[in-house]
Amino acid sequence: MGDPLTFSKFDFSIAEFEKLPVNSSKEVVFAGRSNSGKSSVINAITGQKRLARSSKTPGRTQLINFYSVRPGCFLVDLPGYGYARAPKTVKQNWQNLLASYLQRRMQICGLVLIMDIRHPLEKLDIMLLDIFVPAGKPILFLLNKADKLSKQQALEQERLVSSRLELITVECYLEVFSATQAMGTTSVRKIINNWIS
Ligand SMILES: Nc1nc2c(ncn2[C@@H]2O[C@H](COP(=O)(O)OP(=O)(O)OP(=O)(O)O)[C@@H](O)[C@H]2O)c(=O)[nH]1
Ligand SMILES: [Mg+2]
After folding, report:
1. Residue-wise pLDDT tens digits, 128-153
2. What is the pLDDT of residue 59?
3. Half-sphere exposure of 57 (CA within 13 A, CB side)
4. Per-residue pLDDT tens digits for 30-74
5. Partner of 154 for a Cys bridge, out of 4, 87, 99, 149, CB 3.0 to 4.6 A?
6. Is the CB of 65 under 6 A from ligand 1?
7. What is the spatial distance between Cα 26 and Cα 184, in angstroms, rounded to a whole number?
8. Cα(47)–Cα(17) distance, integer angstroms
9. Could you tell me which residues come within 8 angstroms of residue 47 by beta carbon, excluding any fewer than 6 positions away?
């Protein structure tokens, strides 16, 4: 039998957090800056080239996309943050809704925070962590686009991030990843499967 994640199917999109599904028991949330590779990572771990739409234009994913792994169990692809096209009031409203989703949604069983390995833990990533950490749930830090660095440089970035994660009080995982080269997929799948099992 193949990995359960490879059976993922696009289920639906919502534009507002008020429309969250009621028939959900588990949600793994994928968050990160715009263009960090969230959609590409979802494609890599599900082994499907076109499940989530990836794009060179930042801010492409405007909706919250739900991919079902099995009935009631979802991978949730959030729109990327840090893309400054929306008006300030719209962004503020969105941030408030995102915060209440991340803090109160019982179904969330883990957060995958996707970062470009060359620019990890930026201001908006830290803001997101400040919101999510109090929920006490596990976090997987994914250093994506590792193919853009040499092995040595990637290792240095991993060490740097790892030292900063010592301060985090919840269960943490750190993985060097490349969506384009499917690097790190085995360990990432293992962690997520453990969360949703
Ligand atoms: N070299 C390299 N490029 C990558 C990798 N992952 C994603 N990309 C590229 O980065 C760009 C953005 O990828 P997406 O997956 O669309 O990023 P996203 O975070 O979903 O973006 P938004 O939905 O706009 O927030 C695309 O051009 C991808 O091909 C990777 O591991 N290595
Ligand atoms: Mg996307």
Report:
1. 999 999 999 999 999 999 999 999 99
2. 56
3. 5
4. 999 989 999 899 999 999 888 887 666 655 556 889 999 999 999
5. 149
6. no
7. 23
8. 28
9. 3, 5, 6, 185
Mutate to test the pocket of ligand 1, among 38, 40, 81 (most ligand atoms within 8 A of CB): 40
Ligand number, closest to the Cα atom of 148? 1
Tokens representing residue 46 in the block? 């599900």
Nearest CA to ligand 1 atom 2: 145
**Domain 4-196, CATH class in plain words:** alpha beta
- Bridge partners (DSSP) of residue 65 are 13, 77
The finding on whether 180 has its CB within 6 A of some atom of ligand 1 is: yes
Measured CA to CA, the distance from residue 49 to residue 40 in angstroms comes to 8
Cα(100) to ligand 1 centroid in Å equals 27
The response to whether residue 185 sits with its C-beta less than 6 Å from ligand 1 reads no
Average pLDDT, the chain: 91
How far apart (Å, rounded) are the C-alpha atoms in residues 101 and 96? 9
**If you take atom 17 of ligand 1, which residue's CA is the nearest one?**
37
Name the pLDDT band for 94 (thresholds 50, 70, 90).
confident
